[in-house]
Amino acid sequence: MNSQLLYNSLELYLVIGALLFAIGFYGILSGRTFISMLISSELVLSGASINFMAFNRFLAPDPTVGQIFTLFIMAIAAAEAAIALSIIIAVYRNYKSIDTDEMVELKG
User: Fold this and answer.
1) What does CATH list as the number for 3-106?
2) Which of 31, 39, 51, 93 has a CA that sits 20 to 30 A from residue 57's CA?
3) Cα separation values, 26 from 11, 19, 21, 106, Å
């Protein structure tokens, strides 16, 4: 099979984006520590970014629309990582653990 044909396929990029999104979503649901849940949320955002860029490359009349959305997603991911890490550090200082099963006092 011609490798150039694979690189010019919208379906390939959508499958990769959906796979990253699904792995991230599964990681969020089954995460045992806050760090693993943070990494999984970054995978979800990466899958969304790949889908935006794929639609941008193959379907958008204006080539900058998908890139602008991806830049916003990257900015949101950076802010989310900074805030989440500060919360994780605060939880670790109080409870000496980042395991989600041990945080029974946080339930409302």
Assistant:
1) 1.10.287.3510
2) 39
3) 22, 11, 9, 22
